[in-house]
Amino acid sequence: MAEKKMSALALLQILSEFSDSQHPLSLKELQQRLENNFDCKLDRRTLYNNLQRLQEMGYNINMYKENGSGYYLEDRLFEEAEVMLLCNAIHASNYIPKRDSRDLIDKLLKTQSRYTASRFRNSVYVDNLRKTENRDFFYNLQILLEAIEEGVCVEFDYMRFNRQKQLVPRRKEKYVLHPYYLVYANDKTYLIARNEKYEGFSHYRLDKIRQIHKTNRKVIPLQKSEDPYQYANHKIYMFGGEEEYFLLRCDDRILDDILDSFGKEVPVVDFDDHHFVTRIQSSRQGMFYFALQYLEYLEILEPADARQHLTQILQQALLRYQKK
Predict the structure, then answer these.
(1) CA–CA separation, 288 and 307 (whole Å)
(2) CA 79 to CA 288: how far, in whole Å?
(3) pLDDT above 90 as % of the chain
(4) What would the DSSP string read from start to end of 23-81?
(5) What is the C-alpha separation between 249 and 172, in angstroms, rounded?
(6) DSSP element (H, E) containing 120
(7) How far apart are CA 96 and CA 289, in angstroms?
(8) Cα separation of 24 and 15, whole Å?
(9) Rounded mean pLDDT of 59-78?
(10) Alpha-carbon dihedral sign for residues 42, 77, 17, 38
(11) Are 136 and 96 in contact (CB under 8 A)?
(12) Which of 228, 293, 217, 222 is nearest to 260 (CA)?
C-alpha cells in the first residue's frame, strides 16, 4: 500500500512539472519519467489506476479520452496568468531584494509546469537594477509582524544614502517605536508607528530598516480616534508634516490620476467645461510635490498662504533656470 501511495505522489509530481494543456504526456512518457526521476516502474494498468486515484482525491487531470493526446494536470493552485502577474509584481518591486525576489518567483513558478516557467524567464524577465540593497527585508517584516501581534516596541537603525551611495544610519541613537500597522503605498512598504517623543504617527520604509529587534516595552494602545490608515491615506508620497485641506482646480485630463492618488471619496465639482474642483487633505510638502508634477494641469486655490508659498518656489526655480 505504501508503494502505491508513493507512486501516486511521484506521478502527481511528474504531471505538475512536465505537463500542461500544450504538453500532454502519453502513458509511455509517464512511465519513462517515473522511472528516470523516481526509479519507479509501473505497468500501464497500475499507472492508469493511479491517475484515477488522483482524480478521486480531487486533482483535475485531463485524460486521453477527453483530449485524444495524453494526460496533463489541468487545475493548479494558481492560474498561469495569476502567476505571471505575481511574478512581474515581485520582480518590479524595488523594495524586495534581488535574491529574495528570485526565490519568491521560483516558488511561484513551481506551481506551474516547467514550460510556463521557461516562458516567463525567456519573454518577461528583465533585470531590475533598482532593487533594494537591504537583504534583511523579510526578516524585518517578520520581526515587525511579531511585534505588532505581541504589542511590544521595536528598536532599529534607520538608514539613508550618503554621497558614496552607501546606506548609513541616519543617527547614532536607535529608533525606539511603537509599531501599529504595515501599509503599502507608492510601490513601497511602510511601518506606521509612534515615537514617544512626538505627537501623532510617523512612517518608515521597511527597506531602510536595519538591525531591528523587539523590546520588552509594551505598545501604548491606540485610541478610537486614532487611525493609522487614515494617516497613511493623507500622506501623498508619504511625506511627513501637519495635515491640512487644499482646494484644487484641475484639468479633466488628470481626473484619473486624482482618483488613483486620493481615492474615489474625494469630491469632484464642475468648474467649467474642462476643469473641476476638489478638496484634498494632505501634508503641505506632499501636496507641493504632487502639484509640481502636474503643474500644467493643476492649481492650488486654497489655502492662500500655501498658494503664495508655491508661487515663491516657482519664482525661485524660474530664476535658477534663467541664469546663464
Answers:
(1) 10
(2) 42
(3) 23
(4) S-B-HHHHHHHHHHHH-----HHHHHHHHHHHHHTT--EE-HHHHSS-BEE---SS-HH
(5) 45
(6) helix 114-123
(7) 25
(8) 9
(9) 85
(10) negative
(11) no
(12) 293
Helices and strands of the chain, counted as H and E runs: 12, 12
Kindly tell me if the per-residue pLDDT of 3 is higher than 60.
no
The helix (H) or strand (E) run that includes residue 311 is helix 304-322
Residues 100 and 137: beta-carbon distance below 8 Å: yes
Contact between 126 and 149 under an 8 Å Cβ cutoff? The reply is no
Other beta carbons less than 10 A from residue 246's beta carbon: 22
Grade residue 2 by pLDDT with cuts at 50, 70 and 90. Answer: very low
Residue 57 has pLDDT above 50, yes or no: yes
Short-list 178, 177, 161, CA closest to 169 = 161
| CA distance linking residue 154 with residue 146, whole number of Å | 10
Q: Please, is 199 exposed, middle or buried when counting C-beta atoms within 10 Å of its C-beta (0-12, 13-18, 19+)?
A: exposed
- Walk across the sheet containing 243-251 and list its strands: 269-270, 275-283, 243-251, 298-302
pLDDT tens for 136-151 read: 777 888 888 899 889 9
pTM over 0.70: no
